[in-house]
Design brief:
This protein has 14 helices and four strands. With 384 residues, it is mainly alpha-helical.
C-alpha cells in the first residue's frame, strides 16, 4: 500500500515536470497523469480514514483527538516546506509560483496593494492550508477580490499559493472534518455519497461546466473518490472476518500479483477512456483492501508510504528551482530523486518525532476504552 502511494506521488511529479521543463515534443502518456493520481489518493485516504474512525478513534469523544492528530500529521511539514519556498525566493532573487514569476519587490508591492481582508485571507490560507482550494475561484486585484469560477485567464488566486499542490490537502481537510459524522455510519451511507458524487460529475458534464475547475479543484468533486475509499474499508472488514483472510495470507504472492495486474489496468483506462478516473476509482477500491491485508505488516512498505506526503509537498518548489536546466524526462528523474531525499529529511526531522507523540496520544485514548478491537491496538494501524 505504501509503495502504491509513493508511485502515485511520483506520477504527480512527472505531470508537473512536463509544465516546468524545457520541452519540444508532444506531451507523453504518464503513468497515470497527475490529476488521476491525486484522485486515486482520495480513494486511499477515504479507506484509511474509515479504518481509523471505525477501529481506532471510536465514538464522538475521540473526535477532537482525531482532528488534532490529523492536524499534527499534516501541518508541521506544510510549514517547513513553505519556509523553504520563501527562502528559495531570496536565493533565486525572484518569486516563482504557479502562473506567476516576478521580482520579490513587485510581488510584495502587489500584495501591499490588496485590501486588508484579502491580505488576511491569503496569510491564513498559506499558513493553515484551509481555503487553498477556494483560491482557484478568486481574482485578487487592488480594487478588491472577486469570484471568478472557471475563468482561468482572470482567476489569479491560485498564483498566490506558496505551494500549488496544497489545494488538494485543503480538499482532504474538508473531508477529514466531516468524516467522524459520516464515515462511521456504515457502508450504505458511504455508498450513498459515492452515488451523489458520481451524479455531481455527470451533472457538471451535462451542464457544460469547466471540467478542471468544477471536476477537480472544487471540493465536492472529491466526494466520489473519497467515499469509494470508505466503501473499500467495509469490504476489508468483511474480508478479515471471513475465512478468506488466512487463505489470502497463505497465497500472498499470487494475490499480490493479481492486485498489481488490476492496478496496471488503470494505465490503459487512464489513456483511452473518457472521464477515466470515474472508472479507475472502483477498481482501486476493490484492490485496496487486499493490498492492505497483505502489506500492513511490512515496515519497509510503510516507510516508503510515509515518504509520499513529503514528496508531494516538496516536489513543486524543487521543480521551480531546477526546472530551467532540464528537459521533461531528466527533470522528472532529478526532481523525483531530490524530492525523495528531501522527504527523507522531513520524515526523520519533522514527521517521525511528531508521529511518536501522535501515536502515544492515540494509544492512551485506546487503552482507556477496553472494548476496542484487537486490530485497533496494533502498530500497523498507524496511518499517514
Amino acid at each position: 500500500m505504501g509503495t502504491l502511494r509513493l508511485v502515485l506521488a511520483l506520477a504527480v511529479v512527472g505531470f508537473h515536470a512536463y509544465f516546468q521543463g524545457e520541452w519540444t515534443e508532444d506531451y507523453p502518456l504518464t503513468l497515470p497523469d497527475g490529476r488521476a493520481a491525486v484522485q486515486m489518493f482520495y480513494v486511499i485516504s477515504g479507506f484509511y480514514m474509515a479504518l481509523v474512525l471505525n477501529e481506532k478513534y471510536l465514538g464522538a469523544s475521540s473526535n477532537w483527538l482525531f482532528y488534532t492528530n490529523r492536524f499534527l500529521r499534516l501541518w508541521p511539514s506544510v510549514v517547513v516546506v513553505n519556509i523553504f519556498v520563501i527562502a528559495s525566493f531570496f536565493a533565486m532573487g525572484e518569486v516563482r509560483l504557479y502562473d506567476r514569476t516576478s521580482s520579490i519587490g513587485e510581488f510584495l508591492a502587489f500584495l501591499g496593494s490588496l485590501d486588508l481582508a484579502s491580505q488576511v485571507f491569503l496569510a491564513f490560507t498559506n499558513l493553515f492550508v484551509i481555503g487553498q482550494d477556494l483560491l482557484w475561484f478568486l481574482r485578487f486585484e487592488p480594487g478588491g477580490t472577486s469570484f471568478a469560477p472557471g475563468l482561468e485567464t482572470t482567476a489569479n488566486g491560485s498564483s498566490l499559493s506558496l505551494n500549488h499542490p496544497l489545494f488538494t490537502v485543503a480538499i482532504e481537510a474538508f473531508y477529514y472534518i466531516i468524516s467522524p459524522f459520516v464515515i462511521r455510519r456504515g457502508w450504505r451511507v458511504a455508498l450513498g455519497f459515492v452515488i451523489a458524487g458520481g451524479l455531481y460529475h455527470v451533472g457538471i458534464f451535462l451542464a457544460g461546466l469547466h471540467r478542471e475547475t468544477w471536476g477537480y479543484h472544487f471540493f465536492i468533486s472529491a466526494a466520489y473518490f473519497y467515499f469509494f475509499g470508505a466503501c473499500a474499508y467495509h469490504l476489508y472488514r468483511k474480508i478479515k472476518e471471513e475465512p478468506i483472510k488466512p487463505w489470502l495470507e497463505a497465497h500472498r504472492t499470487w494475490v499480490l500479483a493479481g492486485c498489481v495486474a488490476l492496478l496496471l489496468m488503470l494505465v490503459p483506462i487512464n489513456w483511452f477512456v473518457p472521464r477515466s478516473t470515474m472508472f479507475m476509482a472502483p477498481i482501486l477500491a476493490l484492490v485496496v483492501p487486499f493490498l492492505f491485508i497483505l502489506t500492513r505488516k511490512s515496515r519497509l512498505d510503510r516507510m516508503v508510504g510515509e515518504l509520499s506526503f513529503g514528496v508531494y509537498l516538496i516536489h513543486y518548489p524543487i521543480l521551480f528551482i531546477i526546472g530551467p536546466a532540464f528537459d521533461h524526462f531528466a527533470l522528472w528523474l532529478v526532481a523525483s530523486a531530490l524530492s525523495i531525499a528531501a522527504a527523507l529529511v522531513l520524515l526523520y526531522a519533522v514527521d517521525l518525532p511528531i508521529d511518536r507523540w501522535r501515536q502515544r496520544r492515540a494509544t492512551a485514548s485506546t487503552t482507556a476504552r477496553p472494548r476496542q478491537t484487537e486490530d485497533a491496538r496494533r502498530p500497523s494501524l498507524q496511518v499517514p
